[in-house]
């Protein structure tokens, strides 16, 4: 697929106007129009409504792919230029993973990057709940699969999954019988949630305790403190506390004595790929482009 045509198409989508898109690309309006028309002929479907200018459903889908392809192409050019300047130093791409990361997207992205960039080593770094943003700020990782979205202008994020919330409770808990049907926030807010260290980032603390629905009330706290999913599960199974997470957590952490219960009215939450804002490392840009493309593909297969 011709990247020039994709670039023209995406500019029209983002500007909502052929003339403004042409000015942005330093092309004539006729050239931009021709690029879009050729794409429509190649794909056999209209991509844009003309009055007013807006993407069709097929155009919406292509716009997402176009952003990914153009980002990957730009990263590839930067990477080649880095080598040409003699800056290839063999440093690994350091991938931080909190818990199970972004479910199936995480291993798929790592494997895709290894296939695409076999000469670049990949180092996996396990992150605990306090390293939501600090591992990036302290240059201990280059990319990180974390949740929820960091509230930090120094961090750029790509949303990878959007999932239902669950709580983990002991198999002896009265709520365990609702594992197949679900419960409501009113049923779980008084559970004794695991404590977190004081230096845990506020977004993660708010996420774990469903803070947005508590009206400022503090949660009950378990006597146990948690830094990792294993910490939570050990306490949950022994009946000493409760934890919360994304629905995919249950697939990755089956644990004797622990039961996962959907919270039907809790706001769904995201897992994300976090990077340093403005990071020009071509390896990071390639990893981001591959990961976003895979997240869309896997999400489409799962029906969203």
Q: Between the first and last Cα atoms, what is the distance in angstroms?
A: 26 Å
CATH class of the largest domain: Alpha Beta
**Element order: H for helix, E for strand:** HHHEEHEHEHEEEHEHEHEHEEH
Structural class label: alpha/beta
Order of strands in the sheet with most strands? 4-3-5-12-6
- SS strand fraction: 15-25%
**Assembly classification:** single chain
For the record, the CATH architecture of the largest domain stands as 3-Layer(aba) Sandwich
Please provide a written account of the structure.
The chain has 11 helices and 12 strands. The protein is of the alpha/beta class. The protein has 3 domains: 3-84, Winged helix-like DNA-binding domain superfamily/Winged helix DNA-binding domain (Arc Repressor Mutant, subunit A, Orthogonal Bundle), CATH 1.10.10.10; 93-161 and 270-301, Periplasmic binding protein-like II (D-Maltodextrin-Binding Protein, domain 2); 165-267, Periplasmic binding protein-like II (D-Maltodextrin-Binding Protein, domain 2, 3-Layer(aba) Sandwich), CATH 3.40.190. The strands form 4 sheets. Strands 4-3-5-12-6 form a 5-stranded mixed β-sheet. Strands 10-7-11 form a 3-stranded antiparallel β-sheet. The longest helix has 28 residues, at 57-84. The chain is elongated and about 70 Å long.
């Amino acid at each position: 697929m011709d990247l020039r045509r994709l670039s023209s198409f995406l500019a029209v989508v983002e500007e909502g106007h052929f003339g403004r898109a042409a000015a942005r690309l330093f092309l004539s309006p006729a050239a931009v129009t021709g690029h879009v028309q050729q794409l429509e002929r190649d794909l056999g479907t209209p991509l844009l409504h003309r009055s007013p200018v807006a993407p069709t459903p097929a155009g919406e889908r292509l716009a997402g792919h176009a952003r990914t392809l153009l980002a990957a192409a730009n990263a590839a050019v930067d990477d080649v230029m880095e080598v040409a300047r003699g800056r290839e130093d063999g440093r690994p791409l350091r991938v931080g993973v909190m818990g199970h990361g972004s479910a199936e997207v995480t291993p798929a992205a790592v494997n895709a990057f290894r296939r695409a960039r076999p000469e670049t080593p990949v180092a996996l770094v396990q992150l605990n709940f306090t390293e939501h943003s600090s591992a990036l700020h302290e240059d201990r990782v280059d990319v990180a699969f974390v949740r929820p979205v960091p509230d930090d202008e120094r961090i750029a994020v790509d949303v990878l999954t959007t999932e239902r919330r669950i709580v983990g409770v002991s198999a002896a808990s009265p709520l365990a019988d609702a594992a197949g049907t679900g419960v409501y926030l009113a049923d779980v807010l008084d559970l004794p949630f695991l404590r977190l260290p004081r230096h845990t980032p506020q977004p993660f603390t708010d996420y774990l305790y469903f803070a947005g629905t508590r009206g400022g009330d503090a949660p009950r706290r378990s006597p146990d403190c948690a830094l990792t999913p294993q910490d939570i599960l050990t306490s949950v199974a022994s009946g000493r506390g409760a934890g919360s997470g994304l629905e995919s957590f249950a697939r990755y952490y089956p644990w004797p004595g622990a039961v996962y219960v959907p919270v039907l009215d809790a706001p769904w939450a995201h897992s994300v790929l976090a990077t340093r804002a403005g990071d020009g490392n071509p390896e990071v840009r390639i990893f981001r482009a591959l990961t976003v493309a895979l997240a869309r593909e896997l999400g489409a297969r799962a029906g969203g």
